[in-house]
């Protein structure tokens, strides 16, 4: 079994099928959980696993763990429309990170002001066909850096 995938944000963890986006909700991207972060303040967004950042955009990033698993953190739904506003990169693509290390900072208020949903999927992209086991009953409150789920 893989090490725990950690929560990149504080908030309320919920089932992925509760996300108001058919691609995430339908599991097309992969299995995972959704986080509804607190609003009204800028948040540090943490690496969910130890590994290498293989893809980064202002609103999303992928970390490939040392065991080969690839985990996507997607900050909000349709937040690509913000064109980077409200996001601040801290780590770069190709950089090695430890689980719990700050990858970027995000102020969700800009997304809310634009009428966007701030729910943030945390999804296993690889291995294809993987499943997850939540670390707690869902829905539940979670702190940044807390165990979120394991990949099975």
Please explain how this structure is put together.
With 152 residues, the protein is mainly beta. The chain has a single domain, classed as Glucose Permease (Domain IIA) (Distorted Sandwich). 6% of the residues lie in helices and 41% in strands. The chain has two helices and 14 strands; from the N terminus they run ββαββββββββαββββ. The strands form three sheets. An eight-stranded antiparallel sheet has the order 9-5-6-7-11-3-2-13, with no helix packed on it. It has a three-stranded antiparallel sheet with strand order 1-14-12, with no helix packed on it. A three-stranded antiparallel sheet has the order 4-10-8, with no helix packed on it. The model has no long low-confidence stretch (mean pLDDT 95).
**What is the number of helices?**
2
Quote the distance from N terminus to C terminus.
6 Å
How many discrete structural domains?
1
Please state roughly what percent of the residues sit in beta strands, choosing from under 5%, 5-15%, 15-25%, 25-35%, 35-45% or over 45%: 35-45%
* CATH homologous superfamily designation: Glucose Permease (Domain IIA)
Helix proportion: under 10%
As for the CATH topology, it is Glucose Permease (Domain IIA)
The helix-strand sequence is: EEHEEEEEEEEHEEEE
Radius of gyration: 14 Å
The CATH architecture classification is: Distorted Sandwich
Low-confidence stretches: none
- Average pLDDT taken over every residue: 95
> Which sheet architecture does the biggest sheet show?
8 strands, antiparallel
Structural class: mainly beta
Number of DSSP E strands: 14
Q: Mind telling me the CATH class?
A: Mainly Beta
Shape: globular
Main sheet: strand order: 9-5-6-7-11-3-2-13
């Amino acid at each position: 079994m893989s090490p725990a995938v950690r929560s990149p944000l504080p908030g309320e963890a919920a089932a992925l099928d509760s996300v108001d986006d058919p691609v995430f909700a339908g599991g097309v991207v992969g299995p995972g959980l959704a986080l509804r972060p607190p609003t009204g303040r800028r948040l540090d967004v943490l690496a969910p696993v130890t590994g290498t950042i293989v893809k980064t955009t202002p609103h999303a990033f992928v970390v490939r763990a040392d065991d080969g698993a690839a985990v996507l953190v997607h900050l909000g739904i349709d937040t690509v429309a913000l064109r980077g506003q409200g996001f601040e990169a801290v780590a770069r693509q190709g950089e090695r990170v430890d689980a719990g290390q700050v990858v970027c900072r995000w102020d969700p208020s800009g997304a809310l002001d634009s009428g966007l949903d701030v729910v943030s999927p945390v999804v296993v992209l690889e291995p294809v066909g993987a499943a997850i086991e939540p670390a707690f009953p869902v829905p539940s409150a979670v702190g940044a850096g807390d165990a979120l789920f394991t990949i099975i």
